[in-house]
Task: inverse folding
């Protein structure tokens, strides 16, 4: 996508040809800063501390993390050590393990001296595939937006989204945002309701992206969606996901489930956009997904812009705070999955 007029992706190789560049998403949207990852530890830290985030992008960073490890030491022990460490960076998004397994499978039986180069090649391939998958998700979701636009006689299609499932959360395009970008580029009038997504405010990233692409949008507090649906001001919901299980349950950013419930209550179609890397054939249902519990201070403090990213304390800090980062939307609340191979309404056909 375009950033300051330049075509960019969310991850790239630096000019040295081996270190890995990403945006520091802890600083976005108020500061555009890049981070250079030179060791597997750098990749682990970027994922664990959410300098990089979003299920597909976490996978891409982990894949390059393994390549960085093999560059330092191409032995099998080094490979397994880096694999285990990177896999432990965050528990919920299945793309992390999926990407690591792909890179490991591509190198483990190959001659020691070739492993690092092969890992870089596999990481690059995985990134290209993510871009193509997201573009295909866009093509699959576009007719849904076209249809609503036609029904409304060209009035703006109001789409609600939660968290950031945009190009900053993938290698490019985004999952939930890909149909939106294509619709906008085609001249369809859209307007996006962007949930702020407390406590990490990923909605600010979505708003930053949409503003950069000129897509009309409004930032809303997480609790506004129900009212807007009740008032008939939401035509569809599109969210991304961190893991879809065999029975079609959807794990996504905390708050997604409440949006799905409200959508069902008001007859608003609820779509989940996912690449095949986010489908987890090894997990039967949502109850089996490990839900990340993050620091209570993410709730107690709001972070905003100054030169260092100022943290402002909110509320009564003596109170305990509980911070589950994801929730499970049961398959029954999903109208359809928007995948790289088209719309899927029966979860059995996701695998
Ligand atoms: O905690 P995060 O910011 O990594 O969570 C991101 C999300 O929940 C996204 O909605 C999901 O990964 C889909 S990204 C295309």
Result:
């Amino acid at each position: 996508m375009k950033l300051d007029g330049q075509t960019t992706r969310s991850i790239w190789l630096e000019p040295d040809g081996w270190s890995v560049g990403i945006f520091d998403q802890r600083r976005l949207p108020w500061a555009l800063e890049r981070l250079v990852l030179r060791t597997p530890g750098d990749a682990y830290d970027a994922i664990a501390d959410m300098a990089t985030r979003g299920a597909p992008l976490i996978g891409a960073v982990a894949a390059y993390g393994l390549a960085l490890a093999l560059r330092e030491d191409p032995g099998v022990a080094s490979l397994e050590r880096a694999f285990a460490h990177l896999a432990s960076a965050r528990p919920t998004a299945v793309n992390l393990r999926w990407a690591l397994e792909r890179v490991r499978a591509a190198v483990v039986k190959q001659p020691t001296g070739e492993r690092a180069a092969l890992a870089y090649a596999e990481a690059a391939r995985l990134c290209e595939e993510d871009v193509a998958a997201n573009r295909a998700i866009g093509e699959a979701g576009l007719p849904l937006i076209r249809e609503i636009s036609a029904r409304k006689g060209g009035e703006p299609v109001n789409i609600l989204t939660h968290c950031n499932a945009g190009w900053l959360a993938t290698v490019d395009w985004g999952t939930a945002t890909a149909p939106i970008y294509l619709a906008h580029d085609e001249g369809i009038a859209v307007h996006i309701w962007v949930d702020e997504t407390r406590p990490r405010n990923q909605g600010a990233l979505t708003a930053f992206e949409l503003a950069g692409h000129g897509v009309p949008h409004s930032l809303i507090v997480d609790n506004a969606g129900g009212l807007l649906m009740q008032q008939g001001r939401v035509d569809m919901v599109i969210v991304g996901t961190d893991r879809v299980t065999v029975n079609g349950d959807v794990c996504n950013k905390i708050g997604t489930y409440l949006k799905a419930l409200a959508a069902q209550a008001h007859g608003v179609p609820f779509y989940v956009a996912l690449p095949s890397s986010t489908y987890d054939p090894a997990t039967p249902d949502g109850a089996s997904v490990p839900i990340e519990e993050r620091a209570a201070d993410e709730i107690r403090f709001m972070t905003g812009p100054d030169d260092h990213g100022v943290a402002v304390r909110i509320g009564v800090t003596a109170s305990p705070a509980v911070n589950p980062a994801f929730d499970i939307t049961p398959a029954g609340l999903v109208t359809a999955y928007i995948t790289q191979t088209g719309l899927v309404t029966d979860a059995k056909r996701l695998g």
Summary: The first helix runs from residue 40 to 48. The chain is about 35% helix and 20% strand. The first strand starts at residue 2 and ends at 3.
